[in-house]
Design a protein that fits this description.
- The structure holds two protein chains of two kinds.
- Chain A has helices at about 1-20, 25-50, 55, 70-80, 90-120, 125-135, 145-155, 160-170, 170-180, 185-195, 200-210, 210-225, 230-235, 245-260, 265-295.
- By secondary structure, chain A is mainly α.
- The longest helix of chain A is centred in the middle third of the chain and has 32 residues, at about 90-120.
- The N and C termini of chain A lie far apart (about 50 Å).
- In chain A, helix 9 packs antiparallel against helix 12 (about 210-225), helix 10 runs antiparallel to helix 11 and helix 14 packs across helix 15 (about 265-295).
- Chain A is flat.
- Chain B is mainly α.
- In chain B, about 75% of the residues lie in helices and about 0% in strands.
- In chain B, strands 1-2 form a two-stranded antiparallel ribbon.
- In chain B, a hairpin with a 7-residue loop joins strand 1 (about 55) and strand 2.
- In chain B, helix 4 (about 65-75) packs across helix 16, helix 9 (about 175-185) packs across helix 14 (about 250-255) and helix 13 (about 230-245) packs antiparallel against helix 16 (about 280-305).
- The longest helix of chain B has about 35 residues, at about 75-110.
- The two termini of chain B are about 30 Å apart.
- The chains are: A mainly alpha, B mainly alpha.
- At the A-B interface, helix 2, helix 5, helix 6, helix 7 and helix 8 of A face helix 2, helix 3, helix 5, helix 6 and helix 7 of B.
Chain lengths: ~300, ~325
């Protein structure tokens, strides 16, 4: 009963909103719509191309939207590895394996570390956390050479360790998590301690449920960090069978940059397959991400 | 209390005792800190040392003092003539302009009705997760050199150009294209942080502001919103600087060549990889890295000066 009533009002209200919006809001909406269109047009283009048959890929003049969608490009992509010795499934396995382990370990490492920095008092706490903040400015790309030397001296070349371990040093994960845990009142932890809970229990049963948005955000960042990364494959893997899917796709697309439209369809299909998980995971966790970003400020 | 703390030996003993009492804390931070030490601190410190050596990865590094830095200033023609000007142009546009754009878009989104926000955020954030592979796939075809390239098609139809142009192979356009593509993909974590910061400003402040004569949205922005969200602005400024200076492979991805045609898209990052992995002059390459890190560090410190929260605030 109450529900019905509310729905009617909502409709009226929506109509009112539609007809009585301020002029400035309309202008802002227009600007944003243009920006949003420019932002996603290339993505739409990729989706469209992935389903275009050969005749449409080479159509002149080029069309943005697909007319007769086909899955041919996906077949082409799956069989494109016939020329190389490594089956595509190997690249896919490598990517999934590295991704799952990396995301899981990043969550464990950064929540444990952030909890200690936030709720425990120990010598070195301040300068170590300051160091993590400074490391936000650090880009792995800048020290690609010494990183390579360290990985190679540790004997990790051609092992999964070289795919996983460098990605675990994700300062932004610890940083965001710590900022969020700071908001959980200390009294909660102390009460649990009086009840006899140890630190691991407090982390798992009290802190983690209270900071789920931050867990979601760190998950997104860890995922993005590892999923489309090609540096570990490029620099630390010599053996082709140890490389990951994005690396393989990039070798296909590098040929594309020079050779124009040849294989365009297969590469678009591959690009779409790589991009889709990224997009879905953000769409699902957008709310957590924004809630976490509220606490991202550096004071 | 005063007795023990003031004597240095007592202090050290105290610290040790405190460390032992809190050993669990160290166990909790150990896994992350270990990875951090090996893959972040280690590379940075060893880059600082290697920067002062000559090293070809076969023979042991030899200390040569400031030799690499002198070479950088006096002998590396490509660096001086192309890489540094390119990097400066690229970073100045992508950094501050990208940052301003992020701020503007975030602010515009806060101005629209609530239920529309999510979709716009999604659309604007999406390019930043597209990743290097997708970027090169999409844009390489957009700027493709034959008439099938979208840009060529468009401009040919409008009669602006007479023949198809090889945009990404042309030194006149490559850097500009790199900047546009990077800006397109730069609305990432920093953008979200700015948006979240703006959303989170206490509504009561605006109410109070109205009474005090803050009556337009622009005034609200400058007198209320910006001062309340300095911490988020600092965070995203750091992200913007890092994003602008670490970019490198984009030119290679677009043109399909390293070095890029006529060095038009050569940035410091590509230069480092060129010396490190193509010529194996690792000492010199790390000296370049060291300089880059120093640059990033100084720039972020400047941001901290402007946006950092003072102790008494």
């Amino acid at each position: 009963m109450a529900k019905k009533k509310r729905r009617r009002i909502t409709f009226k209200y929506a109509l009112h909103r539609l007809t009585h919006v301020k002029f400035s809001t309309v202008v802002i909406l227009l600007i944003l719509t243009v920006v949003a269109a420019v932002s996603i047009l290339p993505i739409i283009y990729i989706i469209s191309n992935a389903f275009k048959p050969l005749s449409e890929l080479f159509l002149y003049p080029p069309r943005l939207f697909v007319r007769n969608p086909t899955l041919q490009n996906f077949y082409d992509f799956f069989y494109s590895t016939d020329v190389s010795a490594i089956p595509l499934s190997r690249y896919i396995f490598n990517s999934l394996f590295v991704m799952v382990i990396t995301v899981a370990m990043t969550l464990v490492f950064s929540s444990a570390c952030a909890y200690a920095f936030s709720k425990m008092r120990f010598p070195g706490r301040k300068w170590m956390f300051d160091m993590i903040i400074i490391a936000l400015m650090f880009t792995p790309e800048a020290v690609v050479i010494t990183r390579y030397l360290i990985v190679s001296n540790l004997g990790m070349i051609n092992t999964y360790f070289a795919h996983i371990l460098p990605h675990l040093a994700l300062p932004i994960g610890v940083f965001l998590m710590k900022q969020f845990i700071d908001q959980v009142p200390d009294s909660l932890c102390e009460a649990a301690k009086i009840d006899g809970a140890n630190e691991v229990r407090i982390l798992l049963n009290i802190i983690i449920p209270a900071v789920l948005p931050a867990v979601g955000a760190v998950m997104i960042l860890a995922f993005q960090n590892v999923w489309s990364d090609i540096t570990t494959s490029t620099f630390y893997m010599v053996d082709e069978s140890m490389k990951t899917l994005p690396y393989f796709v990039s070798t296909l697309s590098n040929a594309l940059a020079v050779a124009s439209v040849a294989r365009k369809g297969a590469v678009a299909a591959a690009g779409l397959l790589l991009f889709l998980p990224n997009f879905l995971i953000f769409a699902m966790l957008q709310k957590s991400m924004i809630e976490t970003m509220v606490t991202s400020g550096i004071k | 209390m005063e007795r023990t703390v003031k004597r240095p030996r007592g202090k050290a003993k105290n610290t040790l005792r405190e460390m032992r009492a809190n050993y669990i804390a160290y166990l909790f931070i150990a896994p992350f800190m270990l990875c951090f030490a090996v893959f972040v601190l280690g590379p940075v410190l060893s880059a600082t040392l290697l920067a002062f050596t000559s090293y070809d990865s076969v023979q042991a590094p030899q200390f040569i003092g400031f030799g690499n830095f002198i070479k950088m200033l006096t002998q590396d023609v490509v660096l001086m003539k192309y890489v540094i000007p390119n990097t400066i142009v690229f970073a100045v546009v992508v950094g501050p302009i990208g940052y301003a754009l992020q701020f503007l878009l975030a602010w515009l989104i806060t101005q629209i009705p609530k239920h529309a926000k999510k979709g716009y955020i999604m659309a604007i954030y999406t390019p930043s997760i597209a990743g290097g592979v997708l970027i090169s796939v999409v844009w390489a075809v957009f700027f493709s050199s034959d008439r099938l390239g979208y840009l060529n098609d468009l401009l040919l139809n409008m009669g602006i150009i007479q023949t198809a142009q090889a945009w990404t192979q042309d030194k006149a356009y490559l850097l500009l294209i790199m900047i546009l593509v990077t800006l397109w993909g730069s609305m990432g974590v920093g953008f979200l942080s700015l948006f979240a910061g703006m959303q989170n400003v206490d509504r009561q402040l605006y109410e109070a502001g109205k009474i005090d004569g803050v009556n337009s949205s622009l005034k609200e922005l400058f007198y209320i919103t910006i001062p309340s969200m300095k911490p988020q602005m600092l965070f995203s400024a750091v992200m913007a600087i890092v994003g602008a200076l670490k970019a490198g492979s984009i030119g290679v991805q677009l043109s399909g060549k390293n070095p890029t045609p006529d060095y038009a898209g050569q940035l410091i990052q590509t230069h480092i990889e060129d010396y490190g992995f193509a010529r194996f002059e690792l000492g010199y390459a790390t000296a370049l890295s060291f300089t880059l890190m120093l640059g990033i560090f100084i720039l972020t410190r400047i941001c901290f000066r402007f946006l950092g929260t003072k102790e008494d605030e």
